[in-house]
């Protein structure tokens, strides 16, 4: 029987298609407390006798969080639970309240750096993992009706967007797109640079 | 890429991604196929390949096959390997997502079941029931790439 209290404050942190289960530590004087995490997808509930599947990387771990990204790889409702163990004693399972579906992940605009290399308009984007890509919009200032678009995969360090006309000013903004759930973030702030000779003058 | 694509199954159009299913399967394919001793028999391709199914019948056979895997196959594929079990769970839950979208075509009558697709599906069930359930389930799971290749 359970001598340990079950973990409390169990919640999900999900940003940009990376999902973490977190909980408050269980304190036992003079003992090392370890935790084990299990998940249950809609399939397990409906077709596999409500079975639970352990996450081996988070079995008997002292950490109070678990990266569940690889196991939450379908857009269905998942249940998650965690229990504490210290020596031979173990707690009841503490469960996440409700379900988690990855379609609710928070998507943030990408961090981008726009530079002008002579007449070349270049953009660098922060790597945000394989599940995401970036939709980059760029236009010549004053020609807002002719916005062009490039779709870049995350991790493409730098991209050449366009060859600029001498002395012209070009602006860029971007959003993150999660392909598996077909959702996008808001746009990043617009950044503008001027062509011809400015190695990296950012006019905001 | 892991992005959604529009799949055309006859009159049925479905936006979905098979990339994650394929990634999950690729991670365990060798393990699963090593559990299938009878390599000369096929569940999906005997006696005729799925590629023989005509376009109007594609939606029906696809919908039936997703039901087949959800209802009959995955539940008999539990292994002693935690990693394999987690990947099978990923695939099974992804199948539920896709099946839901295919079901919408059924409701909109874009998924007509002709004689040919029913014949083909009956043959697949006969192949499946001709083996003991665990062997049949493992063989069917090991042939998932045949289904994915045909769908794509």
Automatic annotation (TrEMBL), chain B:
It holds the Pfam family IL10. SUPFAM superfamilies: 4-helical cytokines (SSF47266). Disulfide bonds join 12-105, 59-111, 60-113. It comes from the Eukaryota. Keywords: Cytokine, Disulfide bond, Secreted, Signal. Gene3D superfamilies: 1.20.1250.10. One of its GO terms (cellular component) is extracellular space. GO terms for molecular function: cytokine activity. It is found in: Secreted. Belongs to the IL-10 family. PANTHER family: INTERLEUKIN-19, INTERLEUKIN-19-RELATED. Immune regulatory cytokine. This is Interleukin family protein. It comes from Ptilonorhynchus violaceus. The lineage of its organism: Eukaryota, Metazoa, Chordata, Craniata, Vertebrata. The gene is Il20.
């Amino acid at each position: 029987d359970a001598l340990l209290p079950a973990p409390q404050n169990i919640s999900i942190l999900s940003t940009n298609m990376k999902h973490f289960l977190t909980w408050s530590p269980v304190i036992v004087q003079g003992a090392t407390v370890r935790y084990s995490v299990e998940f249950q997808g809609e399939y397990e509930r409906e077709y596999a006798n409500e079975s639970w599947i352990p996450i081996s990387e988070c079995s008997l771990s002292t950490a109070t969080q678990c990266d569940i990204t690889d196991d939450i790889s379908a857009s269905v409702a998942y249940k998650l639970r965690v229990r504490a163990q210290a020596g031979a004693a173990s707690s009841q399972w503490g469960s996440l309240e409700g379900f988690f579906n990855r379609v609710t992940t928070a998507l943030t605009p990408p961090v981008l750096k726009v530079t002008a290399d002579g007449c070349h308009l270049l953009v660098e984007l922060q790597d945000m993992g394989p599940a995401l890509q970036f939709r980059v919009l760029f236009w010549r200032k004053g020609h807002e009706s002719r916005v062009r678009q490039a779709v870049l995969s995350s991790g493409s360090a730098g991209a050449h967007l366009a060859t600029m006309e001498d002395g012209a000013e070009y602006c860029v903004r971007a959003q993150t797109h999660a392909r598996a759930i077909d959702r996008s973030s808001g746009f990043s702030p617009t950044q503008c640079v001027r062509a011809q000779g400015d190695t990296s003058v950012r006019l905001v | 890429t892991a992005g959604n694509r529009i799949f055309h199954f006859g009159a049925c159009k479905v936006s979905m991604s098979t990339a994650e299913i394929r990634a999950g399967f690729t991670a365990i394919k060798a393990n699963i196929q090593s559990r299938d001793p009878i390599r000369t028999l096929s569940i999906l391709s005997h006696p005729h390949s799925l590629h023989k199914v005509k376009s109007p019948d594609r939606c029906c056979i696809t919908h039936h096959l997703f039901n087949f895997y959800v209802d009959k196959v995955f539940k008999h594929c539990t292994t002693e390997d935690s990693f394999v079990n987690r990947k099978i769970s990923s695939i099974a839950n992804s199948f539920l997502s896709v099946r839901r979208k295919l079901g919408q075509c059924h409701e909109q009558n874009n998924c007509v079941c002709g004689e040919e697709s029913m014949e083909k599906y009956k043959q697949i069930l006969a192949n499946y029931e001709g083996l003991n359930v665990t062997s049949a389930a493992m063989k069917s799971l090991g042939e998932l790439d045949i289904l994915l290749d045909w769908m794509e």
